[in-house]
Design brief:
4 domains; Immunoglobulin-like; 595 residues; single chain; BatD; 30 strands; 5-stranded antiparallel sheet; membrane
Length: 595
């Protein structure tokens, strides 16, 4: 009896220990091989048995990321126990031979941070396999190129440089999607993005071969430092469809899909300093081709009236990056701080437009006042020399007002210790004030028995039938279950889609807000967490709640449309159509949904 009790106790403790071990958090890294040739590929997978957030991969020093991260989530129930698995996988390519260490990855699970164990990888000579056909990755590498075209390799300081990023795709493959991995920061440059409104496919040559290409990004740079400056690369994660040697039953070629990470590569430009020889004394950093003038609104006026003198620079160059010359005026003219005005547009050729300082001038005394010419200097990079433009002198004629001599005499006569004479008011000085009035008394009316008295008395009685009618209408609406459900569904659709409606016309913002609205609606309706948010799970839950098949299919199709539309051209009409479809689907789900 004691032996049986001991065995039973042992098995209970052992099963409890196994269960505790099963319930512990596991986060580990696995590789397809730890010894490979320099021309081979390596697959690494980071797996966790609990749902985690804020996954941080290692930097993969010595390797190039060809694909990833690809995320997968698995849920299963075995003998009543739930098994969960979540993984992030990458495909890597070694950059050179040698011994490399893949460092730790990190993830947060239940508020704690977990790390993987570092893995050592040996990279040897290339593996000879001449009979092996090229893989999909090899074909994509040869037929997909991201290029940064720089307009000038050796610009002057503050001279415009344009950079155009183009994705070249060979006719032998197709690109179904691309997502930016990293955007350049353009350190040591003043930068301005030129918006690409839509991706337009064009034909062109790349290294002597015919390609299709799309302009992804355009930017204008103004270097703010001399010497060798680096332009950081743009990186993309591209989904590529590669043709295979297999065909379907109709003879059409079958394609296989792969993911490629392409980069434009780091570009370096050599920025030349502006020459010191011949640099004008008043040069403030203007580089380009400019016109300069001083414009006065009027030249004849009275004392205490105002005029505006505008110092204006127009043309093409770094209009936002230099100081305008100052206006020097006689001390007898009162001058206010200038108001800066800017009307500048930016294209691939650089900034174009005008900038100006507007001075408000108020003369105090009668006389003639010259506004001297103002000099403006700039460097012309095309002619590689400095130029100076001087405005014409302008004469201001103040034809009426006190003279400066009279003002000086008045100040001298009112020196210290001098008592000012009191000013006597004229007899008719306040003749505009009316002293005699003709007031007539008004008859006081008795309130009792007046019209207002009866309105106040019987008004509440007239409101009683109105209140009864309103109460009956509200009761009818409360009993109308179907109508209330329709109205509630419409309100719910408007609530979740209000942000998307505000962004109609802005493709990326619209589809992001539309997708977020659909996700938030489902989370509120189905009470599911992020890790369970898959299209299969959504379909299963909606069908179990009584939602019809075609409505579920329309909702899933709308989610897929949001994912694809952000990276493909869309018109306002298509966005409006997707918005109306989303509102209709949410309304139908809410009407058919059984709690």
């Amino acid at each position: 009896m004691n032996v049986k009790l001991f065995i039973l106790t042992f098995f209970m403790c052992f099963s409890g220990a196994v269960q505790a071990q099963e319930e512990g958090v596991k986060f580990e890294a696995k590789v397809s091989k730890d010894n490979l040739g320099v021309n081979e590929r390596l697959r690494i997978e980071f797996t966790m048995n609990k749902d985690g957030d804020n996954f941080v991969p290692p930097d993969f020093n010595g390797f190039r990321v060809l694909m990833g991260p690809n995320q997968s989530v698995s849920n299963s129930w075995i003998n009543g126990k739930r098994s969960f698995s979540k993984s992030y996988s990458y495909i890597l390519s070694p950059l050179a031979k040698g011994n490399f260490t893949i460092k730790q990855a990190k993830v947060e699970i239940a508020g704690a941070t977990y790390k993987t164990t570092p893995i050592n990888i040996d990279v040897t000579e290339a593996v000879n396999n001449p009979n092996a056909p090229p893989s999909a990755d090899d074909i994509a590498d040869d037929n997909l190129h991201l290029v940064a075209e720089v307009s000038k390799a050796a610009p002057y300081l503050n001279e415009a440089v344009s950079v155009v990023y183009k994705l070249y795709v060979s006719p032998s493959i197709n690109v179904s999607n691309f997502i930016p991995n990293s955007n350049p920061t353009y350190n040591n440059f003043w930068s301005q993005d030129i918006k690409v409104s839509r991706f337009q496919v064009e034909n062109g040559l790349y290294k002597g071969k015919q390609y299709r290409y799309v302009v992804l990004k355009r930017v204008v740079l103004y270097p703010q430092k001399t010497g060798r400056l680096e332009i950081e690369p743009l990186s993309l994660d591209v989904t590529v469809d590669v043709p295979t040697n297999r065909r379907d039953i109709f003879g059409g070629r079958l394609y296989t899909q792969t993911h490629k990470t392409v980069t434009a590569g780091q570009r370096t430009i050599r920025v030349q300093p502006l020459p010191e020889e011949g640099k004008p004394a008043g040069f403030t950093g203007a580089v380009g081709q400019f016109n300069f003038d001083v414009i006065v609104t009027k030249t004849d006026l009275k004392a205490s009236e105002s005029l505006t003198a505008k110092i204006q620079v127009t043309g093409n160059g770094n209009l936002k990056l230099f100081d305008l010359p100052k206006l020097t005026l006689p001390s007898s003219l009162e001058v206010y701080e200038p108001e800066f005005e800017e009307k500048v547009s930016t294209s691939l050729a650089g900034m174009n437009g005008k900038v100006s300082d507007n001075y408000t001038i108020v003369p105090q005394y009668k006389g003639k006042y010259p506004i001297p010419g103002v000099a403006f200097s700039y460097f012309d990079p095309k002619e590689e020399k400095y130029k100076t433009v001087t405005s014409k002198q302008t004469l201001i004629n103040v034809y009426e007002g006190p003279s400066a001599a009279q003002a000086d005499n008045a100040v001298a006569s009112n020196g210290p210790g001098v008592t000012k004479q009191p000013i006597s008011a004229a007899a008719n000085q306040f003749r505009f004030i009316k002293l005699n009035t003709t007031l007539t008394p008004k008859d006081a009316k008795v309130f009792f028995g007046s019209t207002l008295f009866y309105v106040i008395l019987f008004g509440p009685l007239l409101l009683i039938p109105i209140a009864i009618t309103i109460g009956r209408k509200r009761a009818e609406m409360a009993s109308d279950v179907v109508g209330n459900r329709v109205r509630k569904a419409n309100r719910l659709a408007k609530k979740y889609l209000s942000e998307a409606k505000k962004n109609l016309g802005n493709k990326e913002a619209f589809y992001e807000s539309l997708e977020r609205a659909l996700h938030n609606y489902l989370k509120a309706k189905l009470k599911i967490v992020t890790s369970e948010f898959s299209k299969e799970k959504i379909s299963e839950l909606l069908l179990s709640k009584g939602v019809e098949d075609d409505v579920v299919d329309n909702f899933i199709a709308l989610l897929k449309s949001c994912e694809l539309a952000r990276y493909s051209p869309s018109t306002i009409a298509e966005m409006q159509k997707d918005y109306e479809k989303a509102a209709e689907v949410i309304s139908l789900i809410d009407k058919q949904f059984r709690s």
